[in-house]
């Protein structure tokens, strides 16, 4: 392939911009806040699971409390009913039976109220656990908001720099022949992001091999508009006044 020396040297500008874009992408992907946010997300997931367990325990305690309240209401209703019947009867036998049943119901009510009190304490304790977990999640959310703001501010600077680099790259690319750009892109993919390397002081800037012997002679004999490739890394080799030829 042929390309003027000026066009080939423009590839170095293009490569410099592409390298800068790679660096910006790497920095955007490795912002310190990102690692901290990932750690917070893991912590929040652990806390979220513990909250689900705590809420389950709270709901069980509340369900048991409702059942006990219902049982207490039933016993209280029976005590009220039997008390009214006791006031209305004059039968010694009925009085004895009702008094015995009232004693039994009163004992049952006392037992239920003791259990109810214990379950109420469980509910209160479970509510405290859930509230404590919610405070943890709120604290994590506050940390996340702060880190996201810091990350977004840092990313905004890199995004601006990336936009400028992409704009400059577009300008450079429009000045080069399509076939030269296509060749550069092909070699850049194969070269791990580097498609054009500067030959400086007989050394390839892509793989740092120093040209000697027949390789050096081949470069020296090549026409200035010949597009050359490094025999070691196969990247486009761009010659300038600094090439040492």
Order of helical and strand elements? HHHHEEHEE
Question: Which strand order do you get reading across the main beta sheet?
Answer: 2-1-4-3
What does the main sheet amount to? Answer: 4 strands, mixed
Give helix % range: over 70%
Mean pLDDT: 94
Total beta-strand segments = 4
Structural class by helix and strand composition: mainly alpha
Beta-strand content estimate: 5-15%
Q: Show unreliable segments.
A: none
| Rg, alpha carbons | 41 Å
What does the overall shape look like?
Answer: rod-shaped
Alpha plus pi helix count: 5
The separation of the N and C termini measures 21 Å
What does this protein look like?
With 245 residues, the protein is mainly alpha-helical. Helix content is 76%, strand content 5%. It contains 5 helices and 4 strands. A 4-stranded mixed β-sheet has the order 2-1-4-3. Strand 1 and strand 2 form a beta hairpin. The radius of gyration is 41 Å and the shape is rod-shaped. The two termini are 21 Å apart.
């Amino acid at each position: 392939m042929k390309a003027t020396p000026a066009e080939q040297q423009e590839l170095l500008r293009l490569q410099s911009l592409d390298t800068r874009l790679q660096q910006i992408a790497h920095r955007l992907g490795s912002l310190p806040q990102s690692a901290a946010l990932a750690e917070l997300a893991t912590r929040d997931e652990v806390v979220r699971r513990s909250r689900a367990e705590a809420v389950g325990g709270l709901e069980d305690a509340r369900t048991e409390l409702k059942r006990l309240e219902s049982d207490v209401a039933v016993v209280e209703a029976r005590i009220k009913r039997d008390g009214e019947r006791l006031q209305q009867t004059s039968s010694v036998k009925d009085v004895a039976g009702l008094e015995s049943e009232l004693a039994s119901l009163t004992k049952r009510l006392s037992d239920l109220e003791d259990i109810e009190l214990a379950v109420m304490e469980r509910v209160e304790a479970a509510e405290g656990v859930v509230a404590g977990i919610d405070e943890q999640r709120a604290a994590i959310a506050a940390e996340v908001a702060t880190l996201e703001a810091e990350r977004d501010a840092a990313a905004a600077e890199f995004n601006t720099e990336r936009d400028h680099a992409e704009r400059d790259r577009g300008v450079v690319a429009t000045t080069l022949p399509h076939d030269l750009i296509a060749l550069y892109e092909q070699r850049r993919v194969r070269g791990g992001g580097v498609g054009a390397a500067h030959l400086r002081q007989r050394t390839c800037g892509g793989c740092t091999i120093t040209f000697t012997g027949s390789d050096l002679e081949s470069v020296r004999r090549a026409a200035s508009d010949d597009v050359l490739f490094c025999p070691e890394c196969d990247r486009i080799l761009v010659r300038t006044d600094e090439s040492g030829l």
